[in-house]
Amino acid sequence: MITSDGLGVKFLRSKDNAYDVFSNLCTQIQSEKEMKILKVRSDHGGVFENEPFETFCEKHGIIHEFSSPRTPQQIGVVERKNKTLQEMARTMIHENNLAKHFWEEVVNTSCYVQNMIYIRPILKKIAYELFKGRRPNISYFHQCGCTCYILNNKFYLKKFDAKAQRGILLGYSERSKAYRVYNSETLCVEESMHVKIDDKEPRSETSEQDESFADIQDTEDTSEPDRIEEFKDSPEVEPTSEAQDEVASDEAQDGSQKANQSKNTFKYRSSHSEDQIIGNKDSP
Fold first, then answer.
1. Does the pLDDT at position 251 exceed 50?
2. Are residues 178 and 201 part of one domain?
């Protein structure tokens, strides 16, 4: 991986591709800024100290400097940049429960975000402003790893098919105004601008709901024993004469209601024999 101070990261499939990536990067920067690169600095690794690199630097008038052996402090800018990207990418992966094979996308997003928000201590400007000459717009930033819904405009849809596909936001495109998302249905990473992003965290919401439900259950379970204990602890109170009269009247009313109900009930059943019937069965 070749890094530059605040510009971006380049991923290598193998170390043999380092020269091709470096030459393309130098050509791109010189043509974009209309300036000439004066010098580059690297360690004594075999990836940088070889004949193709020396030939390219001599051809374009670039001075190739090296750090002392086993002294990474002399290229501390790159070392600190790599360490910061690694720590930030690790945090984003574990915070959002992303799969580790998305590390390339997450590292690229980390570098993209750092270039937009980190301020240089001396110049008091961010890297994007130093390179582009203007302040960036970060209103489109969203949480990496959150759920998103991608408009399905690539496949033929029937009348009642879903128009959106569920996915995961991974980052931002470097060559177009689009998001880089992982489509959970097609199982591939794609770029799309037609994306609805849900910045909420459903895991925290469900945990809060579970905790509240558990609190309700605890209060319901503990409410009854407290009442029983209160009744047990309270002293016995003897009923007054008025209370006794009210209880006696209530019992008399209950007895009269039961007697009326017993009169209205039938004294025979169809399953009984006629010998066991009390009274006249034809009488109303």
1. yes
2. yes
Give the per-residue pLDDT at 232: 45
| Ramachandran region, residue 240 (left: φ > 0; alpha: ψ -120 to 50; beta: rest) | beta
3-state secondary structure of 183: strand
pLDDT given for residue 55 in this prediction: 94
pLDDT of 165 above 50: yes
In the chain, the number of structural domains is 2
* SS percent in the chain: helix, strand, coil, step 5: 50, 15, 35
By residue range, what is the domain housing residue 35?
Answer: 2-132
**Domain limit, last residue, from 132, 153, 169:** 132
In one-letter notation, the amino acid at residue 74 is Q
Question: What is the domain-level CATH number for residue 70?
Answer: 3.30.420.10
Please give the Cα distance from 92 to 97 (Å, whole number).
8
CA separation for the pair 78, 6 (Å, rounded) = 10
Instruction: Please give the Cα distance from 195 to 170 (Å, whole number).
Output: 12
Residues near 186 by beta carbon (within 8 Å), at least 6 away in sequence = 165
149: its two tokens: 């819904």
Classified as helix, coil or strand, 79 is helix
pLDDT digits (tens, 9 = 90+) for 99-146: 999 999 999 999 999 888 888 788 888 888 888 888 889 999 999 999
